[in-house]
Write a structure and sequence with these properties.
Layout: E1 4-5, E2 20-21, E3 54-56, E4 73-74, E5 82-83, E6 96-101, E7 107-113, H1 116-122, E8 125-134, E9 141-147, E10 152-155, E11 157-158, E12 164-167, E13 177-184, E14 194-206, H2 211-221, H3 225-252, H4 266-274, H5 281-290, H6 293-307
Parallel strand pairs: 3-6
Antiparallel strand pairs: 1-2, 4-5, 6-14, 7-13, 8-12, 8-14, 9-10, 9-13, 11-12
Length: about 300
């Protein structure tokens, strides 16, 4: 489920200035959730930009079990530094965030923004962002990436070295704000309890053929606002198409016994969750690929209340 382009609906809360319409509502709305807010970060005068940062997620003080919650993390290397945005991990390859999954129902959300992308694109530089999940048993966790609008744009997979990894799509020239979700991969077992580390790294190269660079060049060469809007609309349509392709590829890559073959739509499956029904493995895999984060979290929390909390 992706956002729909609509040329006549300007969203005042859309920081990118795009003309978009959300299905089920976007995850950034009415200033409930803002990523990359420098005004809410305190940068230590003692800390250099390229120094290591070690952020620690504390279940008692860091409330991050919903994407709505805007949580500040303190740096263990420099006690004067804190941040709401784990994009700061980009500045040093040894930087990481350490988090903990303390139950089968625990979910952790992290804000991640990459405003440098726009600057690099204007310079004709293409960049690639890699997000890694490291732990003693990384297979016990899922790491999923969502864009500003709640579209799922990446699910971390085994990197061949015992960890999980994903790359931010290189066709993403619509947004530079993201949400990372970490969860227990087996909701029926507590086997996933434990700590994990998230690392974010970037590589840069000259690539004038990349979507981001081409988008930046076309905007710069536009003669007026109408041309700029037409270019934005073109790339937003391309973005939607690429998300559809990604979701279909993810679905095709599932094991045969996890490929959903039913007739219920994503919306119908989410409604089942809201009523307290437990989805099958294939139904849940289908929903996690195609559902908007906003819709999925509402259904997930409603399901928890009806099946777990009300039984106590």
């Amino acid at each position: 489920m992706v956002f729909l382009y609509h040329p006549w609906i300007p969203r005042g809360d859309d920081k990118m200035g795009h003309y978009v319409h959300y299905i089920g509502g976007g995850i950034v709305d009415s200033k409930i959730y803002e990523t990359g807010n420098a005004a809410k970060s305190f940068k230590s005068p003692m800390k250099e930009l390229n120094e290591q940062t070690v952020l620690i997620e504390n279940a008692k003080t860091n409330k991050n079990d919903s994407y709505h919650q805007h949580t500040k993390y303190d740096d263990q290397v420099d006690r004067y530094y804190s941040t709401y945005d784990i994009g700061t991990l980009l500045h040093n390859n040894e930087s990481y965030l350490e988090g903990t999954i303390d139950s089968k129902y625990d979910v952790d959300y992290y804000s991640f923004s990459y405003p440098q992308k726009s600057f690099y694109s204007k310079m004709g530089i293409s960049s690639e962002i890699t997000i890694s999940l490291e732990s003693k048993n990384s297979q016990a966790y899922n790491l999923v990436l969502y864009d500003l609008y709640g579209n799922q744009i990446g699910i971390a997979t085994d990197d061949g070295h015992g960890n999980k990894q994903l790359t931010v799509p290189n066709w993403d020239c619509v947004t530079s704000d993201y949400v990372i979700r970490v969860e227990n991969s087996n909701m029926t077992s507590d086997s996933g309890e434990g700590s994990y580390r998230i690392k974010i790294t970037e590589t840069k190269n000259r690539d004038t053929s990349s979507s981001n660079v081409q988008h930046s060049q076309e905007i710069a060469n536009a003669d007026n606002s109408e041309e700029k809007n037409a270019i934005k609309q073109k790339y937003e349509k391309t973005y939607q198409s690429e998300i559809d392709k990604l979701h279909q590829m993810q679905f095709e890559a599932l094991p045969e016994d996890e490929k959903y073959s039913g007739t219920d739509s994503v919306e119908e499956l989410l409604n089942k969750m809201k009523k307290g029904e437990q989805l099958s493995v294939s139904e849940m895999a289908y929903v996690k690929i195609f559902a908007n984060l906003s819709d999925y979290e509402r259904a997930e929390k409603s399901n928890y209340i009806k099946t777990i909390f009300m039984q106590k």
